[in-house]
Specification:
4-stranded mixed sheet
Length: about 300
């Protein structure tokens, strides 16, 4: 039997739920929108291609042009992003490759000082999760979580896979390892529980729309246009959230948003969000905790 034939035509991770049929969702202090900002802080292997600004050299090994362009994020971009977020009272929920802990411990030190939360994000962004044998995938998950815990002092409660990749058993393995929430499924504006073999896992809204990777590399947006997209998204969710609370994720990569010509516009969009009274600038763990205490069916 081939690997693909073992994948069911229909998953059984959650039932269909129309958002208009759900009981109203309420956030702390009457907030209409829970906003969480997710910096993807990543490590890339030198001997293979990955995210690229140009295809000109992707056939070369090593591809110094694109590798060094990505390396800007951990050397420069993340520090500018930290400054912008701190200025506007935003704590990051970091999707963290565990190899970042080994190669760039200064980033961990600074993130801890800012009170940022750390999510598991695999080992490197050169390794997607999909084709590994079960025990290898289990080891990948546990190794990433263990490394992050040793480095940051806290075991990650959340998980975002590199490239949002999963096998048919990933959610079960994450629950087995104690992960409480995942951000791989970009199909909602509210949290919802997922079925797993043991324990429980909550899906938190993540975004490919409010994601600088898709915006800059795939849609060719400018920093100004991306910031306006963030503002527009927030304004509509703010209106919708008067009836039932929504979640808005802003998904960022320091090697993209950390450039000066983009970060200045991100700052404008965060100022716009922070200026509204009924908004909750929060983290993934805080969203999961509130939902579990107040809205999850027992």
């Amino acid at each position: 039997m081939s690997r693909s034939s073992a994948v069911p035509q229909h998953h059984d991770r959650f039932p269909y739920s129309a958002i208009v049929d759900r009981p109203p969702l309420r956030w702390p202090d009457g907030a209409r929108v829970a906003v969480w900002v997710v910096p993807n802080i990543e490590h890339f292997l030198f001997d293979r291609p990955s995210s690229s600004i140009t295809a000109t050299t992707t056939g070369l090994v090593p591809d110094v042009l694109n590798y060094s362009w990505r390396d800007y994020g951990v050397r420069v971009g993340v520090w500018r992003l930290m400054e912008v977020m701190e200025k506007h009272g935003v704590k990051g929920t970091v999707a963290l490759n565990s190899d970042v802990c080994l190669h760039y411990p200064r980033i961990i030190e600074a993130g801890n000082a800012l009170g940022w939360e750390w999510m598991g994000h695999g080992t490197t962004n050169s390794t997607l999760i999909n084709a590994q044998p079960e025990e290898e995938e289990r080891q990948l998950v546990s190794s990433a979580l263990d490394t992050i815990e040793r480095s940051t002092g806290k075991r990650p409660r959340g998980w975002l896979s590199p490239g949002l990749s999963e096998s048919i058993r990933t959610l079960d393995l994450l629950a087995e390892a104690g992960v409480e929430y995942v951000a791989n499924w970009v199909n909602d504006e509210q949290p919802y529980p997922m079925r797993v073999k043991s324990g429980s896992v909550l899906s938190l809204p993540y975004s490919l729309e409010l994601n600088d990777f898709a915006a800059f590399l795939e849609r060719g947006q400018t920093g100004e246009a991306f910031a306006q997209t963030i503002c527009d998204q927030f304004d509509v969710l703010y209106e919708d959230g008067a009836a039932s609370g929504r979640v808005m994720a802003i998904c960022l990569h320091p090697f993209l948003i950390g450039h000066p010509h983009r970060s200045k516009h991100l700052a404008r969009s965060l100022a716009h969000i922070a200026s509204r009274r009924e908004v909750w600038l929060t983290t993934g763990g805080e969203i999961a905790d509130w939902y579990d205490r107040n809205h999850r069916k027992r």
